[in-house]
Design a protein that fits this description.
Layout (H helix, E strand, L loop, with lengths): L2 H7 L1 H13 L8 H11 L5 E4 L6 E6 L2 E11 L26 H16 L6 E9 L7 H7 L12 E8 L8 E3 L2 E4 L1 E10 L3 E2 L9 H19 L6 E10 L5 E2 L2 E10 L2 H21 L3 E10 L2 E3 L1 H15 L4 E3 L11 H4 L4 E7 L25 H18 L2
Parallel strand pairs: 3-4, 3-5, 5-16, 6-15
Antiparallel strand pairs: 1-2, 2-4, 6-16, 7-14, 8-12, 8-13, 9-11, 10-12
Length: 398
Protein backbone atom coordinates (compact mmCIF):
# COMPACT_ATOMS: atom_id res chain seq x y z
CA UNK A 1 0.00 0.00 0.00
CA UNK A 2 1.12 3.57 -0.66
CA UNK A 3 1.48 6.28 1.95
CA UNK A 4 -1.70 7.84 0.59
CA UNK A 5 -3.61 4.54 0.93
CA UNK A 6 -2.45 4.17 4.52
CA UNK A 7 -3.46 7.75 5.32
CA UNK A 8 -6.96 7.11 3.98
CA UNK A 9 -7.14 3.97 6.11
CA UNK A 10 -6.59 5.95 9.33
CA UNK A 11 -8.47 9.09 8.23
CA UNK A 12 -11.32 8.56 10.69
CA UNK A 13 -8.89 8.35 13.60
CA UNK A 14 -7.09 11.49 12.42
CA UNK A 15 -10.45 13.28 12.24
CA UNK A 16 -11.37 12.07 15.73
CA UNK A 17 -8.15 13.54 17.13
CA UNK A 18 -8.76 16.78 15.25
CA UNK A 19 -12.29 17.08 16.67
CA UNK A 20 -11.08 16.31 20.18
CA UNK A 21 -8.47 19.07 19.96
CA UNK A 22 -10.98 21.45 18.35
CA UNK A 23 -13.47 21.07 21.22
CA UNK A 24 -10.95 22.21 23.83
CA UNK A 25 -8.80 24.92 22.25
CA UNK A 26 -5.95 26.44 24.22
CA UNK A 27 -4.16 29.72 23.61
CA UNK A 28 -0.50 30.70 23.84
CA UNK A 29 2.45 28.70 25.08
CA UNK A 30 0.77 26.67 27.81
CA UNK A 31 -1.43 23.97 26.22
CA UNK A 32 -1.58 21.15 28.76
CA UNK A 33 -4.75 19.49 27.43
CA UNK A 34 -3.56 19.59 23.85
CA UNK A 35 -0.15 18.29 24.85
CA UNK A 36 -1.76 15.34 26.65
CA UNK A 37 -3.84 14.52 23.57
CA UNK A 38 -0.77 14.56 21.35
CA UNK A 39 1.18 12.35 23.75
CA UNK A 40 -1.74 9.89 23.86
CA UNK A 41 -1.87 9.81 20.06
CA UNK A 42 1.86 9.03 19.90
CA UNK A 43 1.77 6.45 22.69
CA UNK A 44 3.12 3.06 21.62
CA UNK A 45 5.02 4.38 18.62
CA UNK A 46 8.83 3.87 18.48
CA UNK A 47 9.57 7.53 19.18
CA UNK A 48 11.97 9.38 21.45
CA UNK A 49 9.67 11.95 23.03
CA UNK A 50 10.56 15.13 24.88
CA UNK A 51 8.43 17.96 26.20
CA UNK A 52 9.26 21.63 26.54
CA UNK A 53 10.36 23.50 29.63
CA UNK A 54 9.14 27.00 28.84
CA UNK A 55 6.15 25.83 26.79
CA UNK A 56 3.90 22.80 26.30
CA UNK A 57 5.73 21.55 23.23
CA UNK A 58 6.26 17.96 22.13
CA UNK A 59 9.34 16.92 20.19
CA UNK A 60 9.32 13.34 18.92
CA UNK A 61 12.20 11.70 17.07
CA UNK A 62 11.80 8.62 14.89
CA UNK A 63 15.14 6.95 14.18
CA UNK A 64 15.06 4.89 11.02
CA UNK A 65 16.54 1.46 10.60
CA UNK A 66 19.12 2.74 8.14
CA UNK A 67 21.70 5.51 8.56
CA UNK A 68 21.02 8.88 7.07
CA UNK A 69 20.26 12.54 7.80
CA UNK A 70 17.30 14.01 9.65
CA UNK A 71 14.29 15.95 8.42
CA UNK A 72 11.83 18.01 10.43
CA UNK A 73 8.03 18.14 10.15
CA UNK A 74 6.10 20.82 12.00
CA UNK A 75 2.52 21.16 13.22
CA UNK A 76 1.36 24.04 15.42
CA UNK A 77 -1.16 23.41 18.19
CA UNK A 78 -2.47 26.71 19.61
CA UNK A 79 -5.83 28.41 19.10
CA UNK A 80 -7.06 32.01 18.98
CA UNK A 81 -9.02 34.25 21.38
CA UNK A 82 -12.14 34.02 19.21
CA UNK A 83 -15.65 32.89 20.18
CA UNK A 84 -16.67 30.19 17.71
CA UNK A 85 -19.72 30.74 15.49
CA UNK A 86 -19.58 27.69 13.18
CA UNK A 87 -22.29 25.58 14.78
CA UNK A 88 -20.23 22.45 14.22
CA UNK A 89 -21.05 19.39 16.36
CA UNK A 90 -17.46 19.49 17.66
CA UNK A 91 -17.37 23.27 18.14
CA UNK A 92 -15.33 24.77 20.96
CA UNK A 93 -16.72 24.32 24.45
CA UNK A 94 -14.27 26.92 25.79
CA UNK A 95 -15.68 30.43 25.80
CA UNK A 96 -13.56 32.96 23.97
CA UNK A 97 -11.24 30.37 22.38
CA UNK A 98 -11.41 28.71 18.97
CA UNK A 99 -9.25 26.87 16.46
CA UNK A 100 -10.03 29.57 13.91
CA UNK A 101 -6.75 29.08 12.04
CA UNK A 102 -6.85 25.31 11.56
CA UNK A 103 -3.99 24.34 13.86
CA UNK A 104 -6.10 21.43 15.10
CA UNK A 105 -5.83 19.96 11.60
CA UNK A 106 -2.06 20.47 11.51
CA UNK A 107 -1.61 18.70 14.83
CA UNK A 108 -3.81 15.75 13.90
CA UNK A 109 -2.15 15.36 10.48
CA UNK A 110 1.33 15.41 12.00
CA UNK A 111 0.35 12.76 14.55
CA UNK A 112 -1.02 10.70 11.65
CA UNK A 113 2.25 11.12 9.76
CA UNK A 114 4.15 9.87 12.80
CA UNK A 115 2.08 6.67 12.66
CA UNK A 116 2.65 6.17 8.95
CA UNK A 117 6.40 6.73 9.18
CA UNK A 118 6.70 4.56 12.30
CA UNK A 119 5.23 1.68 10.27
CA UNK A 120 8.11 2.17 7.81
CA UNK A 121 10.82 2.63 10.40
CA UNK A 122 12.92 -0.35 9.34
CA UNK A 123 13.41 1.03 5.83
CA UNK A 124 13.74 4.67 6.84
CA UNK A 125 17.20 6.04 5.84
CA UNK A 126 17.60 8.57 8.61
CA UNK A 127 15.55 10.27 11.31
CA UNK A 128 12.39 12.39 11.44
CA UNK A 129 11.82 15.13 14.00
CA UNK A 130 8.13 15.77 14.67
CA UNK A 131 7.68 19.34 15.97
CA UNK A 132 4.40 19.85 17.83
CA UNK A 133 4.50 23.56 18.57
CA UNK A 134 2.49 25.82 20.87
CA UNK A 135 2.39 29.59 20.61
CA UNK A 136 2.40 30.25 16.87
CA UNK A 137 -0.22 32.99 17.12
CA UNK A 138 2.13 35.77 18.17
CA UNK A 139 3.90 33.94 21.00
CA UNK A 140 7.13 32.97 19.18
CA UNK A 141 6.73 29.31 20.06
CA UNK A 142 9.07 28.10 17.31
CA UNK A 143 11.84 30.36 18.57
CA UNK A 144 11.47 28.94 22.09
CA UNK A 145 11.57 25.38 20.79
CA UNK A 146 14.75 26.13 18.85
CA UNK A 147 16.30 27.65 21.97
CA UNK A 148 15.42 24.46 23.88
CA UNK A 149 17.30 22.29 21.36
CA UNK A 150 14.68 21.32 18.77
CA UNK A 151 17.11 21.34 15.85
CA UNK A 152 19.57 19.11 17.70
CA UNK A 153 16.92 16.60 18.84
CA UNK A 154 18.08 13.90 16.39
CA UNK A 155 21.79 14.64 16.81
CA UNK A 156 22.78 16.34 13.58
CA UNK A 157 20.66 19.26 12.43
CA UNK A 158 17.95 18.42 9.90
CA UNK A 159 18.74 18.81 6.21
CA UNK A 160 15.17 19.78 5.39
CA UNK A 161 12.14 21.19 7.21
CA UNK A 162 8.50 21.19 6.10
CA UNK A 163 5.32 22.69 7.42
CA UNK A 164 1.70 22.68 6.25
CA UNK A 165 -0.99 25.27 6.82
CA UNK A 166 -4.64 24.92 5.92
CA UNK A 167 -6.67 27.78 4.49
CA UNK A 168 -10.42 28.21 4.92
CA UNK A 169 -10.66 30.56 1.95
CA UNK A 170 -9.01 31.59 -1.36
CA UNK A 171 -7.51 28.14 -2.14
CA UNK A 172 -9.88 25.42 -3.48
CA UNK A 173 -10.34 22.44 -1.19
CA UNK A 174 -7.56 19.87 -1.61
CA UNK A 175 -5.26 22.18 -3.57
CA UNK A 176 -1.69 22.67 -2.38
CA UNK A 177 0.09 25.98 -2.92
CA UNK A 178 3.60 27.29 -2.29
CA UNK A 179 6.35 29.30 -3.96
CA UNK A 180 10.14 29.72 -3.86
CA UNK A 181 11.51 32.61 -1.84
CA UNK A 182 9.33 34.79 0.39
CA UNK A 183 5.96 33.17 1.08
CA UNK A 184 4.82 35.17 4.11
CA UNK A 185 5.74 38.58 5.46
CA UNK A 186 7.75 39.75 8.43
CA UNK A 187 5.25 41.02 10.99
CA UNK A 188 6.44 43.96 13.08
CA UNK A 189 4.71 46.80 14.90
CA UNK A 190 5.29 50.42 15.81
CA UNK A 191 4.13 51.90 19.13
CA UNK A 192 4.10 55.70 19.24
CA UNK A 193 3.34 58.36 21.84
CA UNK A 194 3.56 62.01 20.83
CA UNK A 195 3.98 64.25 23.88
CA UNK A 196 2.65 67.81 23.93
CA UNK A 197 1.16 70.15 26.49
CA UNK A 198 -2.56 70.07 27.04
CA UNK A 199 -4.96 72.92 27.71
CA UNK A 200 -8.11 74.67 26.53
CA UNK A 201 -8.94 74.01 22.88
CA UNK A 202 -9.91 77.65 22.29
CA UNK A 203 -6.31 78.83 22.74
CA UNK A 204 -4.11 76.27 20.95
CA UNK A 205 -1.27 78.80 20.67
CA UNK A 206 -0.85 78.65 24.46
CA UNK A 207 -0.48 74.88 24.39
CA UNK A 208 1.38 72.24 22.36
CA UNK A 209 -1.18 70.15 20.50
CA UNK A 210 -0.05 66.57 19.66
CA UNK A 211 -3.10 65.76 17.52
CA UNK A 212 -2.08 67.57 14.28
CA UNK A 213 1.40 66.10 14.61
CA UNK A 214 0.04 62.56 14.89
CA UNK A 215 -2.22 63.11 11.88
CA UNK A 216 0.76 64.32 9.85
CA UNK A 217 2.86 61.36 10.98
CA UNK A 218 0.22 58.82 9.92
CA UNK A 219 -0.04 60.42 6.47
CA UNK A 220 3.73 60.71 6.14
CA UNK A 221 4.19 57.02 6.88
CA UNK A 222 1.89 56.14 3.97
CA UNK A 223 3.78 58.52 1.69
CA UNK A 224 7.06 56.97 2.78
CA UNK A 225 5.81 53.52 1.74
CA UNK A 226 5.18 54.68 -1.82
CA UNK A 227 8.16 57.00 -2.18
CA UNK A 228 11.00 55.39 -0.25
CA UNK A 229 10.51 51.67 -0.94
CA UNK A 230 10.81 49.64 -4.12
CA UNK A 231 7.43 48.50 -5.44
CA UNK A 232 9.05 45.15 -6.27
CA UNK A 233 10.09 44.72 -2.63
CA UNK A 234 6.89 46.04 -1.07
CA UNK A 235 6.09 47.06 2.48
CA UNK A 236 2.79 47.70 4.24
CA UNK A 237 2.16 50.05 7.16
CA UNK A 238 -1.33 50.12 8.62
CA UNK A 239 -2.25 52.25 11.63
CA UNK A 240 -4.90 50.19 13.38
CA UNK A 241 -5.26 52.11 16.63
CA UNK A 242 -5.13 55.86 17.26
CA UNK A 243 -6.16 57.62 20.47
CA UNK A 244 -6.10 61.21 21.71
CA UNK A 245 -8.12 63.27 24.12
CA UNK A 246 -11.34 62.96 26.06
CA UNK A 247 -13.40 66.01 25.03
CA UNK A 248 -13.84 68.28 22.01
CA UNK A 249 -12.71 71.38 23.86
CA UNK A 250 -9.60 69.97 25.51
CA UNK A 251 -6.18 69.69 23.92
CA UNK A 252 -4.64 66.45 25.29
CA UNK A 253 -1.15 66.07 26.64
CA UNK A 254 -0.47 63.05 24.46
CA UNK A 255 -1.65 61.26 21.35
CA UNK A 256 -0.83 57.61 20.67
CA UNK A 257 -1.07 55.19 17.81
CA UNK A 258 -0.13 51.61 17.00
CA UNK A 259 0.68 50.25 13.55
CA UNK A 260 1.38 46.88 11.99
CA UNK A 261 4.29 46.69 9.55
CA UNK A 262 4.78 44.02 6.87
CA UNK A 263 7.83 43.45 4.68
CA UNK A 264 9.24 40.71 2.46
CA UNK A 265 13.01 41.04 2.75
CA UNK A 266 15.53 41.50 5.52
CA UNK A 267 16.79 44.63 3.79
CA UNK A 268 13.39 46.32 3.63
CA UNK A 269 12.69 45.31 7.21
CA UNK A 270 15.89 46.90 8.50
CA UNK A 271 15.22 50.09 6.56
CA UNK A 272 11.69 50.25 7.95
CA UNK A 273 12.96 49.97 11.49
CA UNK A 274 15.39 52.85 11.03
CA UNK A 275 13.39 55.16 8.80
CA UNK A 276 9.96 54.97 10.42
CA UNK A 277 11.34 55.84 13.84
CA UNK A 278 13.41 58.70 12.45
CA UNK A 279 10.45 60.11 10.48
CA UNK A 280 8.13 59.99 13.48
CA UNK A 281 10.59 61.76 15.75
CA UNK A 282 11.51 64.38 13.14
CA UNK A 283 7.90 65.33 12.43
CA UNK A 284 7.14 65.61 16.13
CA UNK A 285 10.24 67.76 16.58
CA UNK A 286 9.10 69.98 13.72
CA UNK A 287 5.91 70.66 15.68
CA UNK A 288 7.91 71.49 18.79
CA UNK A 289 6.96 68.19 20.39
CA UNK A 290 8.66 64.95 21.40
CA UNK A 291 7.79 61.44 20.30
CA UNK A 292 8.46 58.06 21.86
CA UNK A 293 8.62 55.60 18.96
CA UNK A 294 9.32 51.90 19.49
CA UNK A 295 9.73 49.51 16.58
CA UNK A 296 8.91 46.02 17.86
CA UNK A 297 10.12 43.11 15.76
CA UNK A 298 7.74 40.18 15.35
CA UNK A 299 8.17 37.18 13.08
CA UNK A 300 10.81 37.21 10.32
CA UNK A 301 9.97 36.78 6.65
CA UNK A 302 8.98 33.18 5.89
CA UNK A 303 11.40 32.28 3.09
CA UNK A 304 11.15 28.98 1.25
CA UNK A 305 14.35 27.51 -0.10
CA UNK A 306 13.93 27.48 -3.90
CA UNK A 307 15.02 23.86 -4.32
CA UNK A 308 12.88 22.67 -1.41
CA UNK A 309 9.81 24.53 -2.69
CA UNK A 310 10.29 22.92 -6.11
CA UNK A 311 10.74 19.54 -4.41
CA UNK A 312 7.52 19.95 -2.39
CA UNK A 313 5.57 21.00 -5.49
CA UNK A 314 6.91 18.00 -7.41
CA UNK A 315 5.92 15.62 -4.61
CA UNK A 316 2.39 17.07 -4.52
CA UNK A 317 2.08 16.78 -8.29
CA UNK A 318 3.31 13.20 -8.27
CA UNK A 319 1.02 12.14 -5.42
CA UNK A 320 -2.17 14.01 -6.26
CA UNK A 321 -1.86 15.27 -9.82
CA UNK A 322 -0.50 18.44 -11.36
CA UNK A 323 -3.89 20.14 -11.12
CA UNK A 324 -3.62 20.14 -7.32
CA UNK A 325 -0.14 21.69 -7.17
CA UNK A 326 -0.01 25.46 -7.58
CA UNK A 327 2.92 27.82 -7.52
CA UNK A 328 1.86 31.16 -6.07
CA UNK A 329 2.79 34.24 -8.07
CA UNK A 330 3.05 36.45 -5.00
CA UNK A 331 3.64 36.08 -1.25
CA UNK A 332 0.93 36.52 1.38
CA UNK A 333 0.99 39.44 3.80
CA UNK A 334 0.30 37.24 6.83
CA UNK A 335 3.12 36.01 9.04
CA UNK A 336 4.35 32.68 10.42
CA UNK A 337 6.85 31.71 13.08
CA UNK A 338 7.93 28.65 11.10
CA UNK A 339 10.11 31.40 9.64
CA UNK A 340 12.47 30.89 12.60
CA UNK A 341 13.06 27.29 11.48
CA UNK A 342 13.49 28.25 7.82
CA UNK A 343 16.11 30.82 8.80
CA UNK A 344 18.31 27.92 9.92
CA UNK A 345 17.19 24.92 7.86
CA UNK A 346 16.38 24.84 4.13
CA UNK A 347 12.78 23.85 3.71
CA UNK A 348 9.33 24.72 2.46
CA UNK A 349 6.04 25.88 3.91
CA UNK A 350 3.01 24.64 1.97
CA UNK A 351 -0.58 25.89 2.03
CA UNK A 352 -3.52 23.48 1.71
CA UNK A 353 -7.02 24.57 0.76
CA UNK A 354 -9.56 23.23 3.27
CA UNK A 355 -12.63 25.25 2.33
CA UNK A 356 -15.69 22.98 2.75
CA UNK A 357 -17.08 21.62 -0.52
CA UNK A 358 -19.96 23.69 -1.84
CA UNK A 359 -18.45 26.87 -0.42
CA UNK A 360 -16.88 29.44 -2.71
CA UNK A 361 -13.25 29.96 -1.57
CA UNK A 362 -13.44 33.56 -2.79
CA UNK A 363 -16.21 34.46 -0.35
CA UNK A 364 -15.69 31.91 2.44
CA UNK A 365 -14.88 33.18 5.96
CA UNK A 366 -11.13 33.58 6.25
CA UNK A 367 -8.70 32.12 8.74
CA UNK A 368 -9.15 33.85 12.13
CA UNK A 369 -12.87 34.42 11.51
CA UNK A 370 -15.34 33.14 14.11
CA UNK A 371 -17.05 31.38 11.21
CA UNK A 372 -13.91 29.85 9.66
CA UNK A 373 -14.52 26.23 8.68
CA UNK A 374 -11.99 23.59 7.60
CA UNK A 375 -13.09 20.37 5.94
CA UNK A 376 -12.00 16.97 7.25
CA UNK A 377 -11.60 15.70 3.69
CA UNK A 378 -8.09 17.20 3.52
CA UNK A 379 -6.80 15.37 6.59
CA UNK A 380 -5.69 12.19 4.83
CA UNK A 381 -3.93 14.07 2.04
CA UNK A 382 -2.15 16.43 4.43
CA UNK A 383 -1.04 13.49 6.54
CA UNK A 384 0.22 11.65 3.46
CA UNK A 385 2.13 14.69 2.20
CA UNK A 386 3.88 15.20 5.55
CA UNK A 387 5.04 11.56 5.48
CA UNK A 388 5.96 11.47 1.79
CA UNK A 389 8.02 14.66 2.03
CA UNK A 390 10.04 13.07 4.83
CA UNK A 391 10.48 9.77 3.00
CA UNK A 392 11.60 11.29 -0.27
CA UNK A 393 13.85 13.88 1.31
CA UNK A 394 15.62 11.24 3.40
CA UNK A 395 16.02 9.10 0.31
CA UNK A 396 17.98 11.96 -1.28
CA UNK A 397 20.45 11.89 1.59
CA UNK A 398 22.48 14.76 2.97
Amino acid sequence: MTIRDDAVRIADEIAELRHDIHREPEIGLDLPKTQRKVLAALDGLPLEIGTGRALSSVTAVLRGGKPGPAVLLRGDMDALPVTEATGLPYASVIGGAMHACGHDLHTAMLAGAARLLSDRRADLPGSVIFMFQPGEEGWHGARYMIEEGLLEAAGDRPVGAYGLHVSSYEIPCGTFSTRPGPLLAATDQIEVTVRGRGGHASVPFLNADPVPAVCEIVTALQTMVTRRFDVFDPVVITVGSLHAGTANNVIPDTATFSATVRSFSAQARSRLEAETVRLIRDIAHGHGLAADAEYVRGYPVTVNDADEAAFATAVVSDMFGADRARTRAFPLTGGEDFSYVLEQVPGAFVLLGACPPGTDPKTAPSNHSAAAAFDDSVLADGTALYAELALRRLARGA
